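User: Second chain of the day. Same drill as before.
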Amino acid sequence: MRQRFWGWLDDRSGIQAMLHALLYERLPRKIGWLHVLGSGALFLFTVQVLTGMLLAMNYVPSTSEAYESVQYITKEVPFGKIVRGFHYWGASLMVIVVVLHMLRVFVMGAYKKPRELTWLVGVMLFVLTLGFAFTGYLLPYDQKAYWATKVGVSFVGYVPFIGEHLKHILYGGEELGAPTLTRFYAIHVLLLPLLTIPLIAIHLMLMRRKGEMPPGAEADEESHVEKPITFYPHQLLKDLVFAGVLLILLFLLPFVWGVHTEPPADPTDTTYLPRPEWYFLPLFQLEKVQIGKVVLFGGARVWLGTVLIPALFVLLLFALPFLDRSPSRRPRRRLPMLLGAGVLLALTVWLGIEAKVETDRERAHLAKGSDTPRFTGLAAVGQRLVMDRCLRCHRVDGQGSRKAPEFVRLAPGESSPWTKDQLVLYLVNPKETHPNTVMPTAKELGLTSLDQLEAVAEYLLHYKPIPRKRGTSSSSYHLE
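Assistant: Same format as last time:
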């Protein structure tokens, strides 16, 4: 009966020939453990799709219910904690495995002729992987999700001419809110999978068409390389072992380190220190790099480091097969190319470590002072007014815009000899003191009473920035 059914199915579908072509593809002898990374990335993507579907059954993409629905999944849904742990850590593992896979292809020169198109599709999949990561971490709608997304989107806002329009498209309005969450959810679960799944199929088809590149073989030698082994059982066994290792990690990581959860998103919280996920920390740190006293990507130039440089890097990846005209694939004959990639990788890792160290320092500083209010009395009133009226242009402790200078300490005898009365007069009419300033008047900011002006001045006099490590910059300026 079984044979009759199999014969009927094969006659209608040709499945036996397809499986034979899939499982018994001939491979070069040196294909081995380094070649499991691509299948590992595919395995992790499958895990993300399956766990994402399970999470979506109970997730509510609204600002009022998103956080509670995630808590419900974690605490009430059977196996919900495991499913969320898989999805949370699967995102990080997928970024790591995809990057390692691309590095393996780069070092072995497998992006060269005749596999240029396979490389180009792989770069697209790399970009989509980062897109999944960026759109996904807003969905829990906790403090980190809200503020990290706000920081990430704010970088886009500084792109000349089109920045504000791009930010409006991502937000779905003027500020991060309900339309943003719905938009990110739709991109994460509909648009990105719709683009990714066909590209994966094309990537696999192209890989099968040209075959695995024999390690160490030049282009003119490839046709003469023997292929004595088959995908099954030799390489398939290695792929399954690596998938098993990844599966064990997906079980262990949530058990050992848990799933990071913070309080619900609070747009009015002026004390939260926003930081993106670890894989975007190098970009975040790039805005603080300085040479001497010159901040390379500070202020309105922040888009150069956080938008333009990543865009140029992706374009470089696309152009790599056509820029690298050297016929050799062997690493020892491509040392300048490999050295340049090594320097870039080391710089990226260094930026990420610097960002982590600085973040831990700043959070420790905030925690030390968390038992007592940072500002009291009139200064606390001024703080609330500044957070409400001034962050559209100014930046305070990592929050707000970069259109105007970041706040610095203005206490007499410190950064600048300002008094309370001088600050009040400056706020009333900034142009009277500095004719070239574009700062609006107090009336235009909605500061209509003397009490409000004195409160803001009191806050400015008591304000101290969170200490930063020497060698980094807060992109701050003094009032002149």
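The chain has two domains: 26-367, 377-462.

User: Great, on to the next one.
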